């Protein structure tokens, strides 16, 4: 049975718990924020282009602007019970760099969230039982982090390889947070939301959408078997942010059905599970150290 984010929180009272959802003004981020708020949480939504959302506090934040991230974290006051790292970009057609010199998908999907999480660490620790929920993707099965050319300076830029790398990096972030911050009571996990029509596909051309079975010849969106609604796609991250996780596990990756994934080799033939490179503890530490140097 495919549950919605609201259904995942049935019977759970989040009154008094403070949470942040990045990229929370549309798609699965918005549905995550709405579900958490409806359960009683005090939710702050961040977005590059904020708008008014009833019941939600919306703050302007561009994750590629590390000074803006630093200002946001410096301005946060009091405990933080959950951080949902949802904001992201996908399949940017041409290689672009952030102001910090990182490939833009990696900068947005990973580095900005790394800066946000580490900047909020003391507030997560103050909560005593905080959660970090990272929205990853089945794309992490296609590529790990290429530490020898992480920003595509020498290898040919490919939009989908760059996206896959950024999503594998998100899982590695959960792995390393789980290791480093366990004594602080911080639990961190990543999840695959599944296939959903959202603004995330704005850079995907029509030919690719048709090849995916997600668009017809006239440009109308299709919903083939396996596609979810945004409310359903928000369920895995919502579970990780606020619902009891089986065995209180940390540093793991959950499938779109909200079950913990099996570790697999990864590669072009992998259809489910989490790639071994996404769970590699040595890679997680190496990426963390690289990110620390990047944010200064």
From TrEMBL:
Pfam family, one: adh_short
Keyword Oxidoreductase appears in the UniProt entry: yes
Highest taxon above the source species: Bacteria
PROSITE patterns, sorted: ADH_SHORT
Keyword list, A-Z: Oxidoreductase
Signal peptide boundaries: none
InterPro entries (UniProt xref): NAD(P)-bd_dom_sf, Sc_DH/Rdtase_CS, SDR_fam
Similarity comment: family membership: Belongs to the short-chain dehydrogenases/reductases (SDR) family.
UniProt name for this protein: Oxidoreductase
Organism: Actinoplanes couchii
Phylogenetic lineage: Bacteria, Bacillati, Actinomycetota, Actinomycetes, Micromonosporales
């Amino acid at each position: 049975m495919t549950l919605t984010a609201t259904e995942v929180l049935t019977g759970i009272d989040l009154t008094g718990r403070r949470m942040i959802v990045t990229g929370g003004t549309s798609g699965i981020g918005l549905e995550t924020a709405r579900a958490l708020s409806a359960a009683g949480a005090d939710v702050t939504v961040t977005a590059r282009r904020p708008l008014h959302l009833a019941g939600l506090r919306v703050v302007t934040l561009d994750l590629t602007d590390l000074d803006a991230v630093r200002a946001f974290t410096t301005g946060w006051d009091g405990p933080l019970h959950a951080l949902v790292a949802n904001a992201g970009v996908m399949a940017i057609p041409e290689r672009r760099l952030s102001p910090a010199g990182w490939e833009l998908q990696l900068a947005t999907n990973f580095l900005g969230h790394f800066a946000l999480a580490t900047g909020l660490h003391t507030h997560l620790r103050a909560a005593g039982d905080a959660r970090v929920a990272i929205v990853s993707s089945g794309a992490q099965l296609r590529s790990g982090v290429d530490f020898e050319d992480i920003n595509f300076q020498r290898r040919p830029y490919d939009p989908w390889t760059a996206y896959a790398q950024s999503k594998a990096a998100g899982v590695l972030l959960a792995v390393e947070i789980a290791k480093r911050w366990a004594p602080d009571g911080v639990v961190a996990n990543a999840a695959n939301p599944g296939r959903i029509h959202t603004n995330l596909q704005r850079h995907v051309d029509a030919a690719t959408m048709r090849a995916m079975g997600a668009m017809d010849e006239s440009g109308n969106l299709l919903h083939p078997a396996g596609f979810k609604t945004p409310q359903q796609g928000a369920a895995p991250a919502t579970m990780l942010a606020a619902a009891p996780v089986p065995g209180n596990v940390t540093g793991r990756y959950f499938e779109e059905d909200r079950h913990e994934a099996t570790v697999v080799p990864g590669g072009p033939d992998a259809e489910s599970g989490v790639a071994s490179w996404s769970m590699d503890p040595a890679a997680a530490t190496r990426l963390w150290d690289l990110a620390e140097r990047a944010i200064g």
